[in-house]
Amino acid sequence: MNRIVFLNGKYIQEHEAKISIFDRGLLFSDSVYEVTAVIDNKLIDFPSHIERLKNSLKELNIINNINYESLLKMHKELIKKNNFSYEEGLIYMQVSRGTIERDFLIKDKDIKPNIFAFTQEKKLTNINFKNSGLKIITKPDIRWQRKDIKTTQLLYATLIKTEAFKMGFDDAWLIDNDGFINEGTSNNAYIIDNNNNIITRDLSNKLLPGITRKTLLEVANKLKLSIIEKPFTVKEAIKSNEAFISSASTLIAPVINIDNQKIGQGNIGPITEILRETYIKISKNNSI
Ligand code: PDD
């Protein structure tokens, strides 16, 4: 690929973008990130992504002078400099604590965060789910206890997704020690019960507060759909009428099978479909 990427204030060819082997993100996963969806060459839910980034930086005590306006300008510039096919895709942005001699002890002095960002081509809106959807396997959640912070410590999620794939599934949902589903490997998880209640786990340190989730709950409210934020079990998920996931990289995508049990009719359910369509419509109206 021949992208123009952003690294520490400069727009350069991707093969020229180099970072020190002493970057703490590289050595300790001492870094946080955001992924923002782009539709019609415009940014979806951008203010909320930056708000969450600031919160992640605060939780890790990463000292920075990052400001909203410069990040917005940088994201817009990357869209301009890289032509998205279908005018859709993602922008990945990472901020690490910075480059310093390897040491478990964090010596804040003189460390300047390393910031980089790049575009990724991805079709987001024009996907036909009439006869398709995701096959999910459930797996134990053995990640650390601060899943509410969006760090780049993603090894378990990538290993378990790959294992799921090898077993013929599209993704995994991660279960806590009490048998409740926390979230997917890189998305939030939802079911719709027999009374048409949309159920998703309430926010805590057990899951990432998804930005798509936040907008989706507003959309569901507007549509006068009933939402219950509470834990749900694998058993409840298997008995559900519909199930789906949300993330910046999938928006809203139907789940048609959990642990080899068919969900609903094996295609996108009517409520998931309305939610996906309305989410896309409202997000496009609010994009910048
Ligand atoms: N992942 N939960 C986890 C563990 C995630 O990694 C993500 C996003 C989400 C959904 O969050 P949002 O709606 O803000 O995208 C939930 C991104 C897309 C990624 O890592 O590529």
Notes on the protein architecture:
The chain has helices spanning 24-28, 46-59, 68-81, 155-166, 211-222, 234-239, 270-286, and strands spanning 4-7, 10-13, 31-39, 42-43, 89-96, 114-121, 134-140, 171-175, 181-184, 188-192, 198-200, 227-229, 242-247, 251-258, 261-262. The protein has two domains: 4-121, Aminotransferase class 4, branched-chain amino acid transferase, N-terminal domain (D-amino Acid Aminotransferase, Chain A, domain 1, 2-Layer Sandwich), CATH 3.30.470.10; 134-286, D-amino Acid Aminotransferase, Chain A, domain 2 (Alpha-Beta Barrel). The protein contains seven helices and 15 strands. By secondary structure, it is α+β, with helices and mostly antiparallel strands. Helix 5 packs across helix 7. Bound molecules: N-(5'-phosphopyridoxyl)-D-alanine (PDD). Residues 35, 183, 186-188, 208, 210-213, 246-249 line the site of N-(5'-phosphopyridoxyl)-D-alanine. N-(5'-phosphopyridoxyl)-D-alanine binds at residues 35, 183, 186-188, 208, 210-213, 246-249.
How is this structure best summarized?
28% of the residues lie in helices and 27% in strands.
Estimated structural class? alpha+beta
Q: How much is the average pLDDT?
A: 96
- End-to-end separation in angstroms reads 26 Å
Largest sheet: 9 strands, mixed
Ligand types: N-(5'-phosphopyridoxyl)-D-alanine
Q: What ranges have pLDDT less than 50 throughout 5 or more consecutive residues?
A: none
Percent of sequence in beta strands: 25-35%
**What is the molecular shape?**
globular
Compute the number of helices. Answer: 7
Total separate domains: 2
